[in-house]
Design goal:
Elements: H1 5-27, E1 31-35, E2 43-45, E3 53-56, E4 62-66, H2 67-80, H3 85-99, H4 104-131, H5 143-155, H6 157-168, H7 185-198, E5 212-216, E6 219-222, E7 227-230, H8 243-255, H9 266-275, E8 284-288, H10 291-306, E9 310-314, H11 323-327, E10 341-344, H12 361-366, H13 368-378, E11 383-389, H14 404-414, E12 418-422, H15 436-440, E13 446-449, E14 460-464, H16 466-476, H17 486-501, H18 504-523, E15 529-535, E16 538-546, E17 551-552, H19 554-566, E18 569-570, E19 572-574, E20 580-583, H20 591-609
Parallel strand pairs: 7-18, 9-10, 9-11, 11-12, 12-13
Antiparallel strand pairs: 1-4, 2-3, 5-6, 6-7, 8-14, 13-14, 15-16, 16-17, 16-20, 19-20
Helix pairs in contact: 1-4, 2-3, 2-4, 3-6, 4-5, 4-6, 8-17, 9-17, 10-16, 18-20, 19-20
Bound molecules: 4'-deoxy-4'-aminopyridoxal-5'-phosphate.
Length: 610
């Protein structure tokens, strides 16, 4: 080569990259007969209909190789002539993908393959000039190829991949290997775009928001090149992107998804399987698209069948975002409620008015329902329903005394009200049994489901008795266009398959017990931990600055969440003082993930104590 050391170093770097990174990855990609000089000049088209390909010239250039190489060769031809190479490459790849669908790993290698191809051509040309300078060659000089190597490398692999992915509607590039961080400016751009497009106060977790583009099992992969153990999750019940759920959703989406007024079998199959897991009187389903909607409909049902208009909730409940469900979601005990809602004192033996070893805790707390019922009577509403999340998540996952919900239910029934069990948090094995209300031994008149029901695919379900559903539908004719659509039903069915097939209810119980045992052991060295409680894989860890007075360690909890993030673990907090760590990992975690979590928590707590 004539260009000296700099050129040699450049080519050396390209071939190093190739042999270390690219070649091993190429081996894992699809191989087939490809054209190694695929460009428009090698394609014969019909004279009258240029869109019709009639032949390919130069069968000597056909070989068995990686499909990604064919894409890169053809892409190179397009890009070389374009003023804006990335747009040209995106257009080309989108057109290729429309005829012959590409895989995302193939897209990610296109730029590197273009680079290495030009580097090879430069070397071949250089060698030819050196060895046989007088013999004719169609490549006169290595120069233009070296220039292309420089230009292509300057485009930036991440940016190039991102645009190609966008063109083919693949998810955003997200490195799965530590250290392979994507463009650091992207995070700031997203925050800014979110503020301008979705409101200046859109909420996000953490002082520096996280940017995930990929998930698998209990792991979320961030664009900072790190993976994070997800102990926050309350949606991906069977793990992020569970392959069985993904397949079911994509197969159905590829077949049909339309208005739910047509007949289709999957939703009936699903309704049958779902009700089969509930008490025998719960036989009728109404499908919507979210937990909020399910609660809203349940509330409408309760009013319709009881003729009453008053509701009872826990004083710091959360049940959703519709107009009325926001009223049912004060989130804090001190927030004023409208006159048709009464909030009950949270049955929290650690922090509430009745504590620890006092006798008859359940009954003492349940008596507050008498006050609530009387208030609703006085206000002229009467009691239509008591709605409760069996996991008591927004109350900080207290250790609810056995018999409490049964005692409240007895009072509500006597007042003519229904029991609405909101299973959005507690259902589908979360509490170590199928349903949270099963754990409390209550009789549900209406059960509502959301989030985990579709493992992230929007689906909400209201399950009740035939009588309640029929009376309600007769009166209202309520119908949801997308509720329980064929794709949602496929997701729901697949989630049931996985929970059964992987024995996740049992796993939730055993792994949850292991987690709490390890946390209690950790508490011996960490005075900030005041209390550990929960069932199955919903666990509350209450942090206190003084174990005796139980003063809530609110500021420390918020610091802890950030420290845990630095150690690669995601976790949230809740409770009236935001001092309870709320742990809800996907049910697929095992002892390894428990150990990792406890280790990260121990290190973070100790760093705060130091
Ligand atoms: N009920 C409970 C107990 C919840 O925790 C939530 C969501 N956090 C909802 C209902 C509302 O569900 P969605 O946001 O899916 O509408």
């Amino acid at each position: 080569l004539s260009g000296g050391d700099e050129e040699r170093a450049l080519l050396h770097a390209v071939f190093e990259d190739y042999s270390r990174g690219l070649a091993p990855r190429l081996k894992t990609l699809r191989h087939q007969v490809i054209h190694q000089d695929a460009h428009p000049g090698n394609v014969l088209v019909d004279r009258d209909d240029p869109a019709k390909i009639t032949g390919i010239i130069d069968f000597g250039d056909l070989l068995f190789g990686s499909l990604a190489a064919e894409v890169a060769v053809a892409c190179g031809g397009v890009v070389e002539e374009a003023g804006d190479p990335i747009t040209a490459a995106s257009d080309f790849v989108a057109a290729y993908d429309a005829e012959l669908p590409l895989e995302e790993d193939e897209l990610d290698l296109v730029l590197d393959l273009m680079v290495v191809r030009n580097a090879m051509t430069a070397v071949v040309a250089g060698a030819h000039l050196r060895i046989a300078p007088d013999e004719p060659t169609h490549i006169a000089s290595p120069r233009p190829f070296i220039d292309r190597v420089v230009k292509l490398r300057g485009l930036g692999r991440d940016r190039f991949s991102r645009e190609l992915r966008r063109a083919c509607r693949f998810p955003v590039y997200c490195p799965a290997t530590p250290g392979a961080a994507a463009d650091p400016g992207e995070e700031a751009r997203l925050v800014e775009a979110r503020r301008s497009l979705m409101g200046r106060n859109t909420t996000h977790f953490y002082s520096r928001p996280m940017h995930f583009e990929r998930g698998r099992g209990p792991w979320l992969y961030a664009t900072d090149g790190r993976r994070y153990l997800d102990f926050y999750n309350n949606v991906a019940q069977v793990g992020h992107c569970h392959p069985h759920v993904v397949r079911a959703v994509s197969r159905q989406a590829a077949a049909l998804n339309t208005n739910t007024r047509y007949l289709y079998s999957s939703v009936l199959d699903y309704a049958d399987r779902l009700t089969g897991r509930l008490a025998p009187h719960l036989t009728a389903c109404l499908f919507v698209n979210s937990g909020s909607e399910a609660n809203d409909v349940a509330w409408q049902m309760a009013k319709t069948v009881t003729g009453h208009t008053g509701g009872i909730i826990m004083e710091d409940a959360y049940h959703g975002v519709t107009d009325v469900m926001r009223r049912f979601s004060p989130g804090r005990p001190d927030k004023p409620l409208p006159d048709f809602i009464e909030g009950l004192v949270v049955p929290d033996p650690y922090r509430g008015p009745f504590r620890d070893r006092e006798t008859d805790l359940a009954e003492k707390y349940a008596q507050d329902a008498d006050r609530a019922i009387a208030a609703l009577e006085r206000a002229g509403h009467g009691t239509a329903a008591f709605i409760v999340d069996s996991a008591f998540c927004s109350s900080g996952i207290p250790d609810v005394p056995d018999g409490y919900l049964r005692a409240v239910q007895a009072r509500v029934r006597k007042a003519g009200g229904l029991m609405i069990c909101d299973e959005v948090q507690s259902g589908f094995g979360r509490m170590g049994c199928w349903w949270g209300h099963e754990h409390h031994g209550v009789h549900a008149d209406i059960v509502t489901m959301g989030k985990p029901v579709g493992n992230g695919f929007p689906l909400g379900v209201v399950v009740t008795t035939d009588e309640i559903l029929n009376e309600f539908i007769d009166l209202t004719r309520l119908f949801s266009t997308f509720g329980g659509n064929a794709v949602a039903a496929a997701a729901g069915n697949a989630v049931l398959d996985v929970i059964d097939g992987e024995n996740l209810v049992e796993r939730s119980r055993t792994i949850g017990n292991l987690l709490r045992r390890k946390l209690r052991e950790l508490a011996a060295d960490c005075p900030l931990i005041g209390d550990v409680r929960g069932h199955g894989l919903v666990t509350g860890v209450e942090l206190v600055s003084d174990r005796k007075s139980r003063s809530p360690a609110t500021a420390e909890t918020s610091t802890l969440l950030e420290l845990m993030r630095e150690r690669g673990v995601l976790v949230g907090s809740d409770g009236r003082d935001a001092n309870v760590l709320k742990l809800r990992p996907p049910l697929v975690i095992g002892a390894d993930e428990v150990a990792r979590f406890v280790d990260a928590l121990g290190q973070s707590l100790k760093s705060m104590q130091a």
